[in-house]
Amino acid sequence: MAKVFNWQLGRDMDYPYEGSRPERQFCMVMDTNKCIACQTCTIACKSTWTWGPGQEYMLWNNIETKPYGFYPTGWDVQVLERLGPQDWQGDTYAGKTIFEAAETGEVAVNWQPDQADWNHPNLGEDEPTGVAGEETYIPDIPHADMWMYYLQRICNHCTYPACLAACPRQAIYKRDEDGIVLIDQDRCRGYQECVAACPYKKSMFNIETRVSEKCIGCYPKIEQGLQTQCTTVCIGRLRLTDFVNTPDKADARNPADFLIHTRKVALPIYPQLGLEPNVYYIPPIHVPPKYLHQMFGPGVEEAIETYKNAKDDDELLGALMLFGSTEKIIYSFDVRGGVARGYDRKGDELVAVPLREPELVRDFSYPTTLADGTPATGYRHNT
Amino acid sequence: MSDAITRKALLAGAGVGAVAVGAFLAGCGGGEEAPQKDAQLVARRVDGPLPVDDPRSSAWRGDGETLLALVAQQAAKPALAQVSVPDVWLSALHDGRTIAFRASWAQESAGEVDSLGVFHDAVAVMLPGTSRERPAITMGAPGAPVHIAQWRGSWQKDQDSGRRVSVPEIYPNYVRDLTPSELLPPRTAVLWAPGRAVGNPLSGLEERSPVEELLAEGFGSTTHLPRQQASGRGVFADGRWWVTIAMPMQRGQGLIDILGGLYWPVAVAVWSGPAGNRGGRKQYADWASMLVEA
Question: Would you kindly state where each structural domain of chain B is located, as residue ranges?
Answer without folding.
Answer: 2-161+205-292
